[in-house]
Each structure stands twice: as structure tokens, then as C-alpha cells.
Write a structure and sequence with these properties.
This protein has 226 residues and is an alpha+beta fold. 30% of the residues lie in helices and 26% in strands. The chain has helices at residues 23-54, 123-127, 150-157, 159-172, 185-188, 221-224; strands at 66-69, 76-79, 83-89, 98-105, 114-121, 134-142, 175-180, 202-207, 213-219. β4 (98-105) and β5 (114-121) form a beta hairpin. The protein is globular, with a radius of gyration of 20 Å.
Length: 226
């Protein structure tokens, strides 16, 4: 398992909204909706992080990839194509479940990264009947060079590694990039968490919307080399 320091799940801030008619009544309703949604979203992230850490997700066979009907007498085979599935989360047994969508995007001409995301319905799609939208709450990218290492085989066959990365992303609320550390990594991605790593080790790097980054986890060399 990676070595990392604990972090708190941050609060989420939302942009302001404007309305064309009945501003007082609609803005008041919006504030109420926003507070309720923010509370629910924070509770959902805490709950989802816990499930991811414990591996209690109804993941498909072959996760972090998925399975398709097999050939030549095999019941199934693993597919590395893009896919998605839904997980229903119950915060209150008396209330409707929350739907979280897990998706995987295979490398393509636009991006060489392997990408996993988790999204939930955006506030507008919950409180307004005709609105549609998803809010991304986790985002993990894996550099293709990682897949050429012994760790890459473990990532493909041991679901808990990707679940751990998603849990960190849910917790911090930002992108997690999994890559191989090199001689420049300490200069580009410093850490204040007491985490130590050397070139050749696989590191989890948190990257915020402003491009600032920090190493938040390291898989020790002897943990993934057979």
C-alpha cells in the first residue's frame, strides 16, 4: 500500500448564479438548494471514500477494466476499451440512493493517458427537472510508461490499487496522476508530507486546477517488484 499522510476532505465552493425573474424568491430557494446539495455532496464523498478504501464497490469483473463475452469456450475475457458503470450509494436507508458513475477512457489520439473518473449528478440536474449535468468528484490518470513496469501488471490485476487512487482523488478533490519518478521529480513535484521517493518508484501526484502539484503517495520498490 502507498505511504501517505492523512488529509481532510475539503469543502466545495460553487459559483454564484443570477436569475431573470422573481429574484428574491428564486435566490432564496437557490441558497437553500445549494446548502442542501453541499451537505449531501460532502457526506457522499466521505461515504464513497470509505467504500473505495474498503473495496466495497460493485465493480465489474476485470476492474479496473471490464469483461466481455469470451470466445473459444471461455466464459469471458478482459476488455481494455472505454466503459462505464453505475454505483448506487445509500446515505440514508429512508431516502433515495445517490448514483455515482464510474468511467474509464482508454488512450486515444487526443490523450495517451489511461483515465478513470467518478461523477455524480450536478446540483441543477437534481433540483431542476429539465437540467442535465454531471459533477466530477474523482479523476485519476496513469502514464503509459507505468504500464511497462512490474507495477503496471499489478495495477491491471489488483483492483485495490486503482480504488486507493480514486479514494485519494475523492478525498483531496483534485486530479491524481500516477507516474514513474525520475531525477527531476523532486524539483517538479515537491512534498511537504514527509514522503520520500527515488527515481524509478511509482508516485501518486496530486495536481490542482492551477497546475500546482505535490507527491501524495509512493509505492515502495519492493512492494510491486516480484
Amino acid at each position: 500500500m502507498p505511504h501517505r499522510a492523512p488529509a481532510l476532505i475539503p469543502q466545495i465552493s460553487y459559483a454564484s448564479y443570477s436569475y431573470a425573474s422573481s429574484p428574491r424568491q428564486q435566490v432564496a430557494q437557490s441558497h437553500s438548494d445549494r446548502a442542501s446539495y453541499t451537505d449531501d455532496l460532502l457526506a457522499l464523498r466521505v461515504h464513497l471514500r470509505s467504500l473505495l478504501k474498503r473495496g466495497q464497490i460493485s465493480k465489474p469483473v476485470g476492474f479496473p477494466f471490464h469483461s466481455v463475452p469470451g470466445s473459444k469456450g471461455r466464459p469471458y475475457e478482459i476488455s481494455y476499451n472505454s466503459y462505464e458503470f453505475s454505483e448506487y450509494l445509500y446515505l440514508d436507508p429512508r431516502a433515495k440512493p445517490h448514483c455515482a458513475t464510474f468511467s474509464y477512457a482508454a488512450p486515444n489520439s487526443a490523450s495517451r493517458m489511461m483515465t478513470w473518473r467518478i461523477s455524480v449528478p450536478a446540483r441543477e440536474s437534481i433540483y431542476h427537472r429539465h437540467a442535465r449535468g454531471q459533477l466530477e468528484i474523482a479523476h485519476v490518470e496513469v502514464d503509459p510508461l507505468v504500464m511497462e513496469t512490474p507495477f503496471g501488471f499489478r495495477l491491471m490485476t489488483e483492483p485495490h490499487i486503482l480504488l486507493e487512487a480514486l479514494a485519494i482523488s475523492v478525498e483531496l478533490g483534485i486530479l491524481i496522476n500516477i507516474q514513474i519518478a525520475n531525477s527531476r521529480t523532486p524539483h517538479r513535484h515537491h512534498t511537504k508530507r514527509g514522503i520520500y521517493y527515488e527515481p524509478g518508484e511509482v508516485v501518486f501526484i496530486a495536481v490542482d486546477n492551477n497546475g500546482r502539484s505535490e507527491v501524495v503517495s509512493v509505492f515502495e520498490h519492493d512492494e510491486y517488484v516480484s
